[in-house]
Amino acid sequence: MTYIERTLERKFLHMSSFFKAVLVTGARQVGKTTMLKHLAEGQNRTYVTMDNAMARNLAQSDPVLFFQTYKPPIIIDEIQKAPELFEQIKIICDETEERGLFWLTGSQQYKMMKNIRDTLAGRIGILELYSFSKNEIDRVFFTNKLDFSLNCLLERQKIVKKNDIVDVFEHIWRGGMPDAIMADAEQRQEYFNSYIETYLMRDVAEEGGITDSVRFRKFLNACAALTAEQVNYKRLAEAAEISQPTAKEWLRLLQGLGIVFLLQPFANNELKRLTKTPKLYFCDTGLCAYLSMWLTRDTLMQGAASGHYFENYVVIELLKNFSYSSNKVNLTYYRDSNAREIDVIVEADGFIHPLEIKKSANPDRREIKKYKILDKTTLERGSGGIICMCEEVIPIDDKNCFIPCNLI
């Protein structure tokens, strides 16, 4: 399989030229190692993985000897398995002015992140890689910053093919895991099954001490059934026959392993009675579809949950886009006690961009009326609109457009 370029490469190299160490976190099998090895081609850079028992034992027992054996510049895979190395990495960083010495990968587990932030503060850049976005698979790379303005969207429209629901749902059903992209239906099913059994169950046992795989599998299925909805700990706990505090802990674990993403509610002092509950999304829609037993693209596309899956897809594509871009963005959603809801609010550069997500190719333009709620805040409302299955950008008013989902 030929290498597929990752949008994160630009940011990674930019950080590597500034920090002495760069850590790429993310779920297992999303392509962290492949990307780093690709970027290291032609460099004299050592590679070692902490999955290798001998290397791991050496790292844990004698970090000094480890770095005499495996000399920087270096790629260290699965660094969370040998936190003993952090102190020694700090010492080496402080003895040199060289940048990009350590390229590290690891899953974003809570204990490791706290450890690495405490030990390597100011010396390390931390980036997150997700499974392939649809644009990466289609080899579409936008050069302009996404600000949802008409000009930005028209510029992007020039380089993509027409939005197509079958194409979009093929991606939603298949997901973006590198190994699942090329698989047929039967192989895909086996892939996700072994992904859960091999990686996920092992990681939750190591990280969270969870050994009851039957209950955990029920919990995963319950999460998949709740995708694109507000988190309901009572429902999750009942489905898996566990207590609500345990459900909270297990969900936090899935978040740390890069399996789910919790979209936090919009918080603002000027607006009263806002919800405090996050919404649940899967970082890979293919895994979610597998867990809910959607066996083909068409049954998913025509099924009752298709709107939820479309929303999940759009939210995660936005998350990927902004994680890899140069500017810091905050993603939230709005819901108040009157059940008024705005699917996504993008806060960037002092502006808020309200977005609705609709699977339809011709959604109701009146949806944007509720954006006026946000005018009570001190933040200025920027461009927004309705992200949907329409084929081309269509202005609704001076601030909002119908936005084809393939332009994000």
Structure commentary:
The chain is α/β, with parallel strands linked by helices. The protein folds into two domains: 8-128, Rossmann fold, CATH 3.40.50.300; 145-407, no CATH class. It contains 17 helices and 15 strands. It has helices at residues 8-16, 32-39, 53-61, 63-69, 85-94, 110-120, 134-137, 150-157, 165-174, 178-181, 185-208, 213-225, 233-240, 244-256, 285-291, 297-302, 306-324, and strands at 21-25, 46-49, 74-77, 102-106, 124-128, 229-230, 260-263, 279-282, 330-335, 341-348, 351-357, 380-381, 384-388, 394-395, 400-404. Strands 9, 10, 11, 12, 13, 14 and 15 form a seven-stranded mixed beta sheet that branches. Helix 5 (85-94) links the parallel strand 3 (74-77) and strand 4 (102-106). It is globular, with a radius of gyration of 22 Å. The model has no long low-confidence stretch (mean pLDDT 94). This is ATP-binding protein. Keywords: ATP-binding, Nucleotide-binding. It comes from Gallibacter intestinalis.
What's the helix and strand layout?
Layout: H1 8-16, E1 21-25, H2 32-39, E2 46-49, H3 53-61, H4 63-69, E3 74-77, H5 85-94, E4 102-106, H6 110-120, E5 124-128, H7 134-137, H8 150-157, H9 165-174, H10 178-181, H11 185-208, H12 213-225, E6 229-230, H13 233-240, H14 244-256, E7 260-263, E8 279-282, H15 285-291, H16 297-302, H17 306-324, E9 330-335, E10 341-348, E11 351-357, E12 380-381, E13 384-388, E14 394-395, E15 400-404
Parallel strand pairs: 1-4, 1-5, 2-3, 3-4, 11-12, 11-13, 13-15
Antiparallel strand pairs: 6-8, 7-8, 9-10, 10-11, 14-15
